[in-house]
């Protein structure tokens, strides 16, 4: 194969709905979320053994949860964990992208764009009024991708400023 041919070769990418009862899908979800957690954008620390054990059963027990897995030539390369909710202002469903990650070795291949295309197709199919997500200010590559796809800050009244995403951790 010539260098030119190698540059133009495109790996086969497949996006699938994750089946939480499928052991391979479950392992791939945990592996991708661990990869995300260990990345600086995910906090830089591995998931605890307890979280790894509880993750997929917890998703399966959450009616609003669904997950997409991206595979490149049969190897897991991406994950999107989605939560379907309801927009009170739109009086329609919405999809929140709770987690989205592409493995380091597969970045730059358009997998994120393919995941987003599938998410937006799902959102349109259910009549959703919007897709939401959160992103760290310093995650310039992700922010660039999201902006190129039409995502951005939201505000109801410019005088009141942009919406902020806050949290309070609860002890369990």
Word description of this protein:
It is a single chain. The protein is 34% helix and 24% strand. It is an alpha+beta fold and 172 residues long. A 5-stranded mixed sheet has the order 1-2-3-4-5, with helices on both faces. Mean pLDDT is 92; it is low at 1-9. It is globular and about 50 Å long. It has 5 helices and 5 strands; from the N terminus they run αβααβββαβα. The termini are far apart.
What's the arrangement of strands in the largest beta sheet? 1-2-3-4-5
Molecular shape: globular
- What percentage of the residues does DSSP assign to strands (E)? 15-25%
How many angstroms separate the termini? 56 Å
Rg, alpha carbons: 17 Å
Total number of beta strands: 5
Helix content: 25-40%
Task: Please report the number of helical segments.
Answer: 5
Weakly predicted, low-confidence segments: 1-9
Largest sheet: 5 strands, mixed
Reconstruct the topology from this structure.
Elements: H1 3-8, E1 13-17, H2 23-38, H3 49-60, E2 65-72, E3 75-87, E4 92-102, H4 111-125, E5 130-133, H5 140-148
Parallel strand pairs: 4-5
Antiparallel strand pairs: 1-2, 2-3, 3-4
Keywords:
34% helix, disordered N terminus, alpha+beta, globular, 172 residues, five-stranded mixed sheet
